[in-house]
Design a protein that fits this description.
The chain has about 180 residues and is mainly alpha-helical. The protein is built from 9 helices and 2 strands; from the N terminus they run H-E-H-E-H-H-H-H-H-H-H. Strand 1 (about 40-45), helix 2 and strand 2 (about 70-75) form a beta-alpha-beta unit.
Length: about 180
C-alpha cells in the first residue's frame, strides 16, 4: 500500500474513489483536534462508512477511542456488519427504517424516477436505492438481464459488466431474486 493506494482519485477516468482511504481519515485529525475559539461543536459525518478500507477503519478507530469532547462522529451505513466490531462497539446504533411505501413512491415520483413502483419493490422499499439505480443508468441493464433470464437465456449473466463493486452487487441481487 503505497502513496498510489491512498490517492483520493482513482486512475479510471479521474473519478472520485468509492473507497474511503486512510489519508482522508488522517485529514480529519486537523479538524477534530483544533480547538475552536468559539468552543462550538464539530461534527464528522462519514457517509457510506462501510466503504472504509482496513487502514482507514483502523485510523478512525484511534479517533473514536478518545474523541475530543466537542466532536461528534456520525457514521452512516446500510451495511453495519461491514464495519469493524471495534468500531461498532464504540458507536450508538440508531436504526432508520425504510419509509412508508406510499410516501416513498410519492418522493420517487417527485424525483422523476421512471417506473418508480417497480424499482421500489425491487429494492425492498428503499427509495434511495431506487433513485440510485435510476440515476446510475443501470436500470435498463437490469431490465435487460431480467428479461433475458425470464426468456431462458443465461448469456446475459456472462455479459454483465463488472466495472464497479456495485455492478457485482446488483448482479448477485438480481440472480438471488430471480432464483427465489
Amino acid at each position: 500500500s503505497g502513496a498510489q493506494d491512498d490517492a483520493p482519485m482513482t486512475a479510471r477516468a479521474g473519478r472520485p474513489s468509492r473507497e474511503i482511504k486512510i489519508t482522508q481519515i488522517r485529514e480529519l485529525d486537523d479538524f477534530i483536534n483544533v480547538v475552536s475559539h468559539k468552543k462550538g461543536r464539530r461534527i464528522v459525518l462519514l457517509h457510506r462508512a462501510e466503504s472504509m478500507n482496513a487502514n482507514a477503519a483502523n485510523s478512525l478507530l484511534k479517533s473514536l477511542e478518545e474523541p475530543p469532547l466537542s466532536v461528534c462522529f456520525i457514521l452512516v451505513t446500510d451495511k453495519q456488519d461491514s464495519l469493524l466490531p471495534t468500531i461498532r462497539s464504540r458507536c450508538v446504533s440508531i436504526e432508520a427504517p425504510t419509509p412508508d411505501r406510499e410516501i416513498a413512491a410519492r418522493w420517487l415520483a417527485a424525483q422523476k424516477v421512471p417506473d418508480a413502483d417497480r424499482w421500489l419493490a425491487f429494492f425492498g422499499g428503499s427509495p434511495l436505492a431506487a433513485l440510485g439505480v435510476a440515476e446510475s443508468g443501470r436500470s435498463e441493464r437490469i431490465v435487460a438481464l431480467i428479461d433475458s433470464l425470464m426468456g431462458g437465456s443465461r448469456d446475459a449473466i456472462l455479459a454483465w459488466p463488472v466495472a464497479e463493486p456495485e455492478d457485482l452487487e446488483i448482479l448477485v441481487d438480481v440472480l438471488q431474486k430471480w432464483a427465489l
